[in-house]
Amino acid sequence: xxxxxxxxxxxxxxxxxxxxxxxxxxxxxxxxxxxxxxxxxxxxxxxxxxxxxxxxxxxxxxxxxxxxxxxxxxxxxxxxxxxxxxxxxxxxxxxxxxxxxxxxxxxxxxxxxxxxxxxxxxxxxxxxxxxxxxxxxxxxxxxxxxxxxxxxxxxxxxxxxxxxxxxxxxxxxxxxxxxxxxxxxxxxxxxxxxxxxxxxxxxxxxxxxxxxxxxxxxxxxxxxxxxxxxxxxxxxxxxxxxxxxxxxxxxxxxxxxxxxxxxxxxxxxxxxxxxxxxxxxxxxxxxxxxxxxxxxxxxxxxxxxxxxxxxxxxxxxxxxxxxxxxxxxxxxxxxxxxxxxxxxxxxxxxxxxxxxxxxxxxxxxxxxxxxxxxxxxxxxxxxxxxxxxxxxxxxxxxxxxxxxxxxxxxxxxxxxxxxxxxxxxxxxxxxxxxxxxxxxxxxxxxxxxxxxxxxxxxxxxxxxxxxxxxxxxxxxxxxxxxxxxxxxxxxxxxxxxxxxxxxxxxxxxxxxxxxxxxxxxx
Length: 522
What we know:
Order of helices and strands: HHHHHHHHHHHHHHHHHHHHH
Distance between the termini: 13 Å
Structural class: mainly alpha
Shape: globular
Radius of gyration: 22 Å
Largest sheet: none
Number of domains: 2
Number of helices: 21
């Protein structure tokens, strides 16, 4: 499999989703602003986001895909029919669990909202009741997105990566439609309509994945739940993996709860908007790499191709650094014009954009580690080692909690993002060290030669952007056309400088470019 091509396919569709997400967030800032209404919706939206990350991009896929692949590729089995039978047995157990869990969360929505927000900072009983209402509206999305992850795991195993990668587009289109059609002069009413749109989008994604599975010869039938040894093994892998795969998201939940309970209204919104910008490169690079690497490495190891698996992970590491280092540099240094251009109009004030840029810089310090976790954890999951990533993720969450408590008062809305970034860096260092110690990852000569040169190229780009961004600041407050033109100039200048620097420094050669172009034509 062409790692770059597969990652590019997922990344391209994720780019569409993320761009639509930025459109959604811009409209959200315009119609709701940074207030209690926005904070209440974002707290209600945090739990569905957590489950999307854990099940759609993390734990379930990490446990299910290797087992499904093993069934499909078993030379003594029936191939795909055995894989479908295993998926049906997993669905038979998963569906009742999800139904019960959804009912419990609906009943206990008040304490769940309290845990996610600390009952906010100085709100009335009526305001908190509104936040609980929004949580109850969004909770069904948890069950829907978990079923989506099962179907998406099947399609990823069949190399139909694009179908699953396109599903989040439906989420953003639904929320955009709700903002454009059902926005209200009262921000609370607009926030309620957004919560309804979240659950509607989950149903649309499930229908989309179900249709795609049928098109690819996969039709799951409902069975009577039965905990056979394989399903028990799947469940034993899923729940611990949730902590490992979702360390960043769990850290964000902690950060959101502390910000809502200790800081002024609007702080949750600043952190959320900054995280959304930070998620753009994470989605394009990290999710694409993680989605492709796990089935690829697990298949190579299953075939006894240890050297090929090592090479795949080295190229994944190189590709992650190539794309992540310039994104980190740009977001840290140019957060002010980016936040102003995307969010700085309507109810979102200049002060709101400034605070968002500060939180963005803190988040982006950890961007390389967020993505490298996606590159390193397949090295564990493909060997069905779930315990080690879970242990390290737990340690990183404890580090995050300690740093949050230490930084949130002196640094306000900057403290939680910085704590999340530092905790993720601790996590990736532990993952890398253990893989190397076990001999499961050895940086080859190409990676060792190119990594420092990529860092120097990103530094050169950062210097140019720092010197030129001041010239563009007057234009990021104009019309939509002028705003996007200013951002396009900023992005183009950064890409040009970085591209030239990688070639001059030998971090990316003309031969690499020629090979990439030949593969694209092929």
